[in-house]
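Worked Example 4.2. Read the sequence first, then its structure tokens.
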Amino acid sequence: MTGTLSSPTAQELTPDELLEAYRTMRTIRAFEERVHDEFAGGDIPGFVHLYAGEEASATGVCSHLDDRDAIASTHRGHGHCIAKGVEVKPMMAEIYGKLTGSCHGKGGSMHIADLSKGMLGANGIVGGGPPLICGRALASQKRGDGGVGVAFFGDGASNQGTTLESLNLATIWNLPAIFVAENNGYAEATSSSWSVATDDIADRAAAFGMPGVIVDGFDFFAVHEAAGEAVARARAGGGPTLIEVKFTRYYGHFEGDQQLYRADEVAHARENLDCLKRFRARVTADGQLDAAQLDRIDADVAALIEEAVAEAKAAPKPGADDLLTDVYVSY
């Protein structure tokens, strides 16, 4: 059965939890906007895909996760990394290709990983994450540790055989897995209205015998509630869930994308739908938080990003002696 969530009613967050959620979303936004600027200046090597505009999804889902849990990401993975607890400074250094990076400067933007945080890695392979999460969810099931696996993927990956096979396998084995389809409307430059056979990716859940939920991806609270129900169900042995989060990315598919396939949807989203604006308006209107508290977080995050960029630029690059390290695992 497919349902739609646009406003939560079942879960209440404490002021501290609200502040933490806002900090995570603000950190993702500031990180991505700074990477956008730095890449334009020519200092960042390789390819970069930005998550700005989609912060409520990663934050709403990962706020329910702990050290038992793991996520698999996509080529657009910075937000997932931050929401799962990967440190910002090593992430920035990794994007700059520096030795102090999360993967010692060898992975770059599309391959940031931190297994100690349950971040199995961003992934340049479209649809590469869902099979990994089936494996991680199976491990938790066999260990009986209550852990869940979460696979984030896009509308393009929703058509990949790896994703569909993973949905099928997760139901057959009743895995504690959650599949989060982040539908920003485009697989690269191809509209999902041209490439996805159903109007809603979540409708496909019925074919695999699992719940499917559609969520307003600009609303942190809606994502938080849907994810909370899915995580609780998975931990209790109730099996997998497919959540479709609908929103708009603020930048192109990649940095340098001229976005000739889009009109004024980004300007509309930034002005009227932005998840940070909506969060701030809601929590201050009902008196849960005040604007000064949120302003302090904005200042803290800005300082953190400034430090991260400065340290990344000053850090050494991998040298010849690093060429053959991190290649093989010794058993």
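Now turn to a second chain, presented in exactly the same format:
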Amino acid sequence: MAVVAHRGSSIPARLVKWFVLIVMKTIFRVFPMSDRTLPLLRAAEPYLGRVPQTIRGVRIEKTTLGGVPTERIVANGDADPHPRAALVYYHGGAFIGCNLDTHRRIAALLARGLRVPVYNVEYRQYPDGGVGTSVGDGFAAYRELLDSGEFDRILVAGDSAGGFVCAKVIEYAAEAGIQGPTAFAGFSPFLDISATLPRSSRRDAMLPISKIRKLRTVLGRGPEALRGPEDMTTDATAAYFPPSVLFAANREALMVDSLELHESLDRAGIRNEVHIYDGQVHAFVVSAGLTRESWDAYKVAVHFLSTELTAAEEIGSAAA
């Protein structure tokens, strides 16, 4: 139940941050958010998908969960140290962009590090649906995996908007009276889409706060309505959460989301850690290996999730 500050930054991390600050943030700042312009962002996805995202040591197969296109990623080699465990990954992209291609690398790395199957979920986004539809798809995938009976313990992880999907899947499972996730890992999670948290983007290398607020004009559409609160950092919502590990770049706009949830989880007595890294960009953990810090954060996440799986398995064995 600690906030861990990781001070200093490597030269590669500084180069990445300055590139994103000069190029990406400028683009996001001037780019108008509307139904006419947002499809242009989706048009760039095929080019992003050409960036190598696969890693050695895993097998990838296409499948569906709850009717949602999904990749099943399994590590090669010896038997899993955590039998009957799996992880569901929900990619980020502000509910308007990114896909399985752009986030395959982090999903594959988690499969290799944890040595459990990872399900990389392609939930619907704008213009095919609003946030409620994205969350609905995410929950449908989680529920089918749980109902399959193949797994006793399911982890959830996601970055940015995918972090919100994780949080709502946790809530939806509790409301449905079914088994919730064993643990949650959030990489710069976007946990309050109501835009009420006191965020600042002045020192954020990527996300202008005005654009985060502007997204609300296009995210409230159907076909599936969002149920429950839009702010998942409160004491009321924290009660749903399993043990959680959260990561953010120091002074990024969404750092406050992780810190607010941390305080609520502490008050609820739920194990959690928040790791804040200097000199990084939003969702830097997704690029694990590109910088020393992203690889360190990835290893911290794997250790936390592995520890929680082991603890859950020991409790299960004692109860049997």
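Notes for the reader: The longest helix spans residues 292-319. The chain has eleven helices and nine strands.
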